[in-house]
C-alpha cells in the first residue's frame, strides 16, 4: 500500500507533466503552515529559472491540472509560487479505511528482503548489568523490531564479552579461595561437577575483588594473565570453570534482559570467534595485507581522503595476543560463514567509533566481508544524571540496572496507588509495565547519538512527552472501546466516515501519517522519530476526546465512525510502542 504522500506525489507529477514542466519539480512535502493546508509543493520556484517564467504562472498552470484530483478539497496558489494542498475529507477517510484493512497498517514490506545482523547488548559475563548497558539494549531492540517489521530477516546478537582477562582473574581468585577444587588438580581425570562452585552473587563479588587485588599485586596479575592464556589454549579444568561462569552468568543476564523486554536471537560471544582467528591471521599474512610494526601485526587502513590520521588496525600484539580488533574481525568471518548478512549494524557507545572505523575498513579491504555488505556504526551518547555527568547512584557509584528498574517501578507504583483505581497486586504489575515504558521512551525519544539527562521525575510523569503519557492515552482509548462494547456495540466491520470538524480531521491526518513516518524511521534508523510521531498522535487524540461527544453522540453513523477511527488510532499506537519495545496495560 502506497503512502498518501506517494499517491499525492503521483498526481502532482502528472500535473507538472501535463502542463509541460519537468516531473522532477513535483516534490510534495508536509506543510510548514498546517493552519493553511496539509501539504505543499514548491516546485514552481525551482522551475522559474529553467523555464524563464514567473513561479506564480508555473504554479497556476500546474494547479489547473489538479482540479479533478480525488485527493484535494482545495488547491491554492500563493505568491510567489507556492502550491498549497488541502486534503478532501473523503480521500482521508477512504485511505484510513484501506489502512485498517491491512495487517501492517499499509506498511509495504521490502520487495527484496535483506539479512540484517544487529550487534547490541555487549555485556561482559560475570559482571552485573549497570546503567551503562541500558542504551545499547534499548536502542538495539527497537532497531531490530523496526527493520524486521519491514519484512527483513533480522538476527540480534548479544556478542558477550566472555573470553578476556576477566576470566583469568575469576579463575585465579577461585583457585586462591578453593584450591581443593578438582579444576585445579592437573591429575584429575574424572568428570567435573555439573553444579557451579559459585552463585551469581558470589561470582559478581569475586571479579571486582580479583580486579582490585591485581592492580596492587603484580605477581597475582601475572598469574591471572597466565590463567587467561591457559583457558584460551584449552586447559581442561579452566574450560570447565569457564562453562560454569557462562551458564550462571547467561541465566542471570537472560532474566535481566527479559525485564527490559529485550530478546536476542543469538547468545554468542568473543569465545565463539576464537576458532576463526588462526586462519584469518594466516590469510592476512599470505595475501600481503598485514605487516609487522615494532613486533605487532597490523593492517593499514588510512585512506587518501582522511583529514586526520586513522591508525592501523592491530591484529596481534607483539607478544602474539589477540585484541578487540582481532575478535571483531573474526566475528565477521563467522557471521559471513554462517549467515551471509547484507548488513551488520553495531549499536555501541559512540566513543568506540574509531575502533569500528578501523575494523570496517580492514574487513572491506581484506575481503573478510563481501564488497556489497554494509557495515554500519550506530553510536549512542551517554545517559547522564541531572548534574550532566554520567548517571550514578546517590552514593556516587555506578548504578546496577536492576536497581534502576526497581526505583522506577516504585515511583510508578506510588503514582498509580495515589489514583486508587486498582488493587495493590494489579498496581504492582501495572507499575512494571508503565515503568518500562518510562525508561524506554525516556531513552528512545532522544536521538541515539546525543547524550541525554535521565530524569526520573520527568520520565515517570503522566503529563508531557513521556512513556506514561503515551500509555495513558492508549488506556483511555481502550476504556472508551470497552464501554462501547459493554453497551452492546461491536467494533467489527465499522467504517471511518469523512471528518465533520477540525478536531476529527486533525486526528485522522495524524493517524494516516504513520506510513510516511515509519518509512523515514526505517530509512534513517531513527526510533526517536517514532516517539515524536506518537506524542503528536496522542496529543491529537486527547484534543479530539475533550472536544467530541463520542459515546453520547446521538447520530449512530457519526458514533460508529468515531469508534472506527479510535480502533485504528489504537492499532497505530500499539504497533508503534511494540516497535519501541514496550506495551500498554489494560488499566492505569
Précis, in short:
With 588 residues, the protein is α/β, with parallel strands linked by helices.
| Radius of gyration based on Cα positions | 29 Å
Helix content: 40-55%
- Number of separate strands: 13
Strand order across the largest sheet = 1-2-4-3
**End-to-end Cα distance:** 35 Å
Tally of helical segments: 21
Shape: globular
The fraction of residues assigned to DSSP E strands is 5-15%
Mean pLDDT: 95
Poorly predicted segments? none
> Which structural category do the helix and sheet elements fall into?
alpha/beta
- Shape-level CATH architecture of the domain at 436-580: Orthogonal Bundle
**Largest β sheet strand count, sense and barrel closure:** 4 strands, antiparallel
Q: What is the CATH first-level class name of the domain at 436-580?
A: Mainly Alpha
By CATH, the topology of the domain at 436-580 is: Isoleucyl-tRNA Synthetase, Domain 1
The CATH superfamily of the domain at 436-580 is Isoleucyl-tRNA Synthetase, Domain 1
Amino acid at each position: 500500500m502506497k503512502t498518501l504522500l506517494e499517491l499525492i506525489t503521483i498526481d502532482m507529477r502528472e500535473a507538472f507533466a501535463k502542463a509541460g514542466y519537468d516531473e522532477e519539480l513535483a516534490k510534495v512535502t508536509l506543510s510548514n503552515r498546517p493552519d493553511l493546508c496539509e501539504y505543499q509543493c514548491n516546485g514552481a520556484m525551482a522551475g522559474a529559472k529553467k523555464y524563464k517564467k514567473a513561479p506564480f504562472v508555473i504554479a497556476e498552470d500546474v494547479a489547473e491540472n489538479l482540479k479533478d484530483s480525488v485527493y484535494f478539497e482545495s488547491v491554492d496558489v500563493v505568491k510567489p509560487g507556492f502550491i498549497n494542498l488541502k486534503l478532501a475529507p473523503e480521500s482521508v477517510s477512504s485511505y484510513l479505511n484501506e489502512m485498517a484493512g491491512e495487517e501492517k497498517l499499509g506498511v509495504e514490506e521490502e520487495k527484496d528482503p535483506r539479512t540484517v545482523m544487529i550487534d547490541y547488548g555487549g555485556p561482559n559475563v560475570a559482571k552485573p548489568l549497570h546503567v551503562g548497558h541500558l542504551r545499547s539494549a534499548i536502542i538495539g531492540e527497537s532497531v531490530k523490531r523496526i527493520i524486521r517489521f519491514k519484512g527483513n530477516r533480522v538476527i540480534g546478537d548479544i556478542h558477550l564479552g566472555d573470553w578476556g582477562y576477566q576470566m583469568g582473574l575469576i579463575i585465579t581468585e577461585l583457585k586462591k579461595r578453593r584450591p581443593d577444587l578438582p579444576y585445579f588438580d592437573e591429575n584429575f581425570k574424572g568428570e567435573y561437577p555439573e553444579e557451579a562452585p559459585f552463585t551469581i552473587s558470589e561470582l559478581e563479588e569475586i571479579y571486582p575483588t580479583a580486579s582490585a587485588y591485581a592492580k596492587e599485586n603484580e605477581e597475582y596479575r601475572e598469574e591471572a594473565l597466565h590463567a587467561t592464556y591457559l583457558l584460551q589454549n584449552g586447559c581442561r579444568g579452566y574450560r570447565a570453570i569457564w562453562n560454569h561462569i557462562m551458564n550462571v552468568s547467561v541465566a542471570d543476564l537472560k532474566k535481566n534482559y527479559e525485564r527490559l523486554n529485550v530478546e536476542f536471537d543469538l547468545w554468542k560471544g568473543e569465545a565463539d570467534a576464537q576458532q576463526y582467528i588462526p586462519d584469518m591471521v594466516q590469510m592476512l599474512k599470505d595475501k600481503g595485507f598485514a605487516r609487522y610494526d615494532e613486533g605487532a601485526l597490523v593492517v593499514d587502513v588510512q585512506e587518501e581522503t582522511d583529514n586526520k590520521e586513522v591508525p592501523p588496525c592491530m591484529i596481534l600484539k607483539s607478544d602474539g595476543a589477540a585484541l578487540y580488533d582481532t575478535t571483531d574481525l573474526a566475528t565477521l568471518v563467522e557471521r559471513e560463514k554462517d549467515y551471509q548478512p547484507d548488513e551488520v549494524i553495531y549499536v555501541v557507545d559512540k566513543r568506540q567509533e574509531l575502533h569500528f572505523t578501523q575494523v570496517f575498513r580492514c574487513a572491506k579491504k581484506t575481503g573478510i566481508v563481501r564488497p556489497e555488505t554494509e557495515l554500519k556504526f550506530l553510536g549512542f551518547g551517554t545517559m547522564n544524571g541531572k548534574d550532566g555527568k554520567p548517571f550514578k547512584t546517590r552514593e556516587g557509584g555506578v548504578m546496577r540496572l536492576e536497581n534502576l528498574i526497581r526505583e522506577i517501578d516504585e515511583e510508578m507504583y506510588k503514582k498509580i496507588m495515589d489514583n486508587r483505581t486498582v488493587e495493590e497486586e494489579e498496581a504492582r504489575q501495572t507499575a512494571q509495565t508503565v515503568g518500562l515504558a518510562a525508561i524506554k521512551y525516556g531513552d528512545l525519544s532522544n536521538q541515539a547519538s546525543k547524550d541525554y539527562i535521565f530524569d526520573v521525575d520527568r520520565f515517570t510523569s503522566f503529563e508531557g512527552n513521556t512513556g506514561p503519557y503515551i500509555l495513558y492515552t492508549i488506556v483511555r482509548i481502550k476504556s472508551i472501546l470497552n464501554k462501547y462494547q459493554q453497551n452492546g456495540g461491536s467494533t467489527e466491520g465499522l467504517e471511518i466516515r469523512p471528518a465533520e470538524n477540525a478536531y476529527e480531521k486533525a486526528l485522522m491526518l495524524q493517524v494516516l501519517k504513520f506510513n510516511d513516518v515509519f518509512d523515514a524511521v526505517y530509512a534513517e534508523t531513527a526510533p526517536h522519530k517514532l516517539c515524536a510521531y506518537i506524542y503528536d498522535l496522542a496529543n491529537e487524540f486527547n484534543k479530539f476526546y475533550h472536544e467530541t461527544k463520542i459515546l453520547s453522540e446521538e447520530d449512530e453513523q457519526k458514533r460508529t465512525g468515531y469508534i472506527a477511527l479510535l480502533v485504528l488510532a489504537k492499532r497505530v499506537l500499539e504497533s508503534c510502542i511494540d516497535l519501541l519495545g514496550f506495551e500498554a496495560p489494560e488499566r492505569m
